[in-house]
Amino acid sequence: MTAVKVHGGIDILRLPVNQEEHVFHPWHIKYTQSHILHSKCSKSENGCGNKDSDACQFCIFSHTLELPHMPDMVFPNNILTLKHQDGAFIQFNALDALKTVSNGKINVQLACAEAWKESRSESSEYLEEKVKPFDWTFTTTYTGTISNFEIQETNERIDVDKLKRREKILFYHDLTLFEDELHDNGIAVCSVKIRVMPSSFFILLRYFLRIDGVMLRINDTRLYHEFGQDYILREYTSREAKVGEIRAPPSLFVEPSEIASYLPLTRCHYHKLIMMLNKTESITNDELTNEIVTDNEATSANICETNSFVT
Ligand SMILES: [Zn+2]
C-alpha cells in the first residue's frame, strides 16, 4: 500500500480508527471515527479500477459520487451504527449523505452568484464552465441509511417535553460526516449526534449551510425511540431564509441550534419506522436502502409543526 503523506508528514492511512460500542439491550450502538478522506488515490498513480473490489476510499467516493469537487473535509470512517437484535439497522455515513447532493444542477440562486463563482475559480475552469454544474453547497436531504424497517407516515410526534426532562445521559457522541468552508464564504457541514437515556435514544442528523451575506439553510432529521416500543419516530425538516429576511442578530448565524427557530420551515416529513424481524442473519450493503426524501412542500403550519427544536 502506498502511503499518502499529508498534514505535516503524518501518514493518515496509519492513524487508528477510534471506535466504541455499547449495548443498550436489545440495541447495539457503535461509532467509528478517523481521519479525513485523502485527496487522491492511495494505491496507484492511475487510480483504482471502477470495479476493483479492493478500491481505496478515495476511489470509492469518486466513482460513486462523480462530483466535480468533494467537500474540503470528508470523514469516510465517521460512522454511527445502531443494530437491533431482531435485525433493524440504522446507520449514518458520509458516502450515503453525499449521494443526495445534486449533481448536474445547482439549486441555489444567489444574489452574489457571480462574485462567489469568481472566488471559487482560482482555477479558471468554473468561468469557462469546463466543470459540469453541481451543488457546491453540498445540500443533502439524507435521513440515514436504514434496513429492516417498514416506513409509515404518522401523526405521532416526538415528545419534546419528555426529551427536555432531565434524564441521565448514558451515552453521547457527535460525528462530523463532511464539511466545506465554501472558499471562506461560509460553511456547509453535515453532522450527527446521539444521546442515549435510560428510557430512550435520540439522534439528530443536521446539515447546516451558511453562505455569508446570502442565506442560511438547515436540514434536520430527528430520530426518537422509546425502549420497549417496536418503532422509531423520524422527523425531517428543512428550513431556510435569505439573510436579509432573518429577524435575528447576526451573531446567531453561526449557531445552528439558536438560529433554527428563526428560519421558516420549507419542507417536512414525519415517519414511523416500524421494526421488522430480520429475514437473514447478516445484512449486506446491497440490502440497505438509502432513502431519498421526496419533496413535500410545507404549505401549512398544521401539517408541519414547528415545535421540534430539541438538539
Ligand atoms: Zn484508489
From TrEMBL:
Query: This protein's superkingdom?
Result: Eukaryota
Q: Where is the signal peptide?
A: none
**What are the recorded Gene Ontology BP terms?**
TOR signaling
* Pfam families the UniProt entry points to: TIP41
Can you cite an annotated GO cellular component?
A: cytosol
Question: Which InterPro entries does this one have?
Answer: Phosphatase_reg/MetRdx, TIP41-like
Membrane-spanning ranges: none
Q: Which PANTHER family match?
A: GAF/PUTATIVE CYTOSKELETAL PROTEIN, TIP41-LIKE PROTEIN
Q: Which family does it belong to?
A: Belongs to the TIP41 family.
Listed name of the protein:
TIP41-like protein
